[in-house]
Specification:
Layout lengths: L2 H20 L1 H17 L3 H9 L3 H19 L3 H24 E2 L18 H19 L4 H24 L5 H19 L9 H19 L5 E2 L10 E6 L10 E10 L2 E17 L5 E9 L10 E6 L2 E7 L5 E7 L7 E9 L13 E9 L2
Parallel strand pairs: 1-2
Antiparallel strand pairs: 3-11, 4-5, 5-10, 5-11, 6-9, 6-11, 7-8, 7-10
Length: 373
């Protein structure tokens, strides 16, 4: 790759990333669609496999990227070692600067606190930087072919696993990952195409000092941050809602509901094993989205599955696998399942749910909402 081509490629990646940010209001429906589709792929076996590989890919890439750089220092190849170091360190700093200065709600946030730092993805950035440096050094050095090809393939596989994990676990939106890949490609193409002994110019020094000065500003003064739209901030208003833990809204509750309480997420109501129902009034039949905020009772730190079945008017809406910790879940309601007026919504915890708490708590609920898509 010639320096001219690398510079053009870097500018193209940067331009596409900027276009994505500008067009986010019109693209967030892709995020919502990808998020719902990913939830349909979840299973107890896939969750268990993902949990086993949770930290392995990034740890492997840190080793793959760090060992060649350490070897460069040991061989006193200072120019190449310094370039690899500032590429990784500078890329991680720029990622953290953007992550702090740009507000974008993650898929895991709860309403109404729709704040977060979803863009760009730190894990994906680290994976790209480590992979890029390793592949560059592998193909620039006189390594054995099996080591060069095998290491490159392993970097690609581990990076793909990290991308999948970030979307599968609901830590990031799809467009977060796409934008991070574009920014990482721009940074790597720009840095790796430059000579290793390139002198530091005055303009580069000014830019570096300016970026370093920006970080404490965006960190200490959050009102200076730029808010980006996400699928969570674009949600429509609810046509029916119930907030748990509020006594006056417990009139329509029936079945295996337990004690009320309060957590940092707000007032909650626990559900026991069995079926717990509630009544919600809808103005007319139609296509709706059911959203509910819940968390399972975690009996032990071992990875396990938390299945929760949801029914409306006797029809099975879906079997939702709950994440650990608070999350808001979405399920489509078929127009044939809902009626004008009162609709009976039932949550079912079966015998395959892990052991309950001391008072038979299984799932804590914060709110249930029904809204138009």
């Amino acid at each position: 790759m010639t320096p001219q081509f690398a510079t053009r490629f870097s500018l193209v990646c940067l331009g596409l990333a900027v276009c994505e940010l500008v067009c986010l209001p019109w693209l967030i429906s892709l995020d919502a669609t990808a998020y719902r589709w990913m939830q349909t792929l979840r299973s107890c076996r896939a969750d268990y496999l993902a949990s086993l590989l949770k930290h392995l890919p990034l740890a492997g890439l840190l080793i793959l990227g760090g060992v060649p750089v350490a070897v460069l220092y040991l061989r006193r190849q200072w120019a190449e070692a310094w370039r690899a170091s500032w590429l990784i360190g500078g890329g991680l700093f720029l990622c953290e600067l953007l992550k702090t200065g740009l507000e974008r709600a993650r898929p895991s946030v709860l309403t109404p606190s729709l704040v977060g730092n979803s863009f760009p993805s730190g894990h994906v950035s680290a994976a790209l930087l480590m992979s890029g440096v390793f592949i560059f050094l592998a193909w620039r050095s006189d390594w054995r072919p099996w080591l060069r090809h095998g290491g490159t393939g392993l970097c690609v596989v581990l990076s793909a696993l990290i991308v999948w994990q970030r979307v599968y676990f609901g830590h990031h939106w799809l467009l977060d990952v796409v934008g991070t890949v574009l920014l990482g490609g721009a940074w790597l193409s720009f840095g790796l195409s430059r000579p290793a002994r390139l002198p530091i110019s005055r303009s580069a020094l000014v830019w570096s000092v300016g970026l370093l000065a920006c970080y404490p500003i965006v960190l200490l003064f959050p009102h200076t941050n730029l808010s980006l739209p996400s699928a969570r901030t674009a949600e429509t208003a609810a046509v029916a809602r119930i907030s748990f833990g509020v006594a006056k809204q417990h009139v329509g509750l029936a079945g295996a509901w337990g004690a009320r309480g309060r957590e940092p997420a707000g007032p909650i109501t626990w559900m026991k094993r069995g079926e717990a129902g509630l009544s919600l009034s809808l103005p007319q039949p139609g296509t709706y989205l059911l959203r509910f905020a819940a968390r399972p009772f975690v009996h032990a730190r071992t990875e396990t599955c938390y299945p929760l079945s949801v029914l409306i008017n006797g029809q099975l809406v879906g079997r939702q696998l709950l994440y650990r910790g608070w999350r808001e879940y979405e399920l489509w309601l078929d127009p044939a399942w809902v009626v004008a007026g009162e609709n009976e919504l039932v949550f079912r915890v079966g015998p395959d749910f892990p052991p309950a708490g001391p008072e038979q708590q299984t799932v804590a609920f914060r709110s249930v909402r029904i809204a138009h898509p």
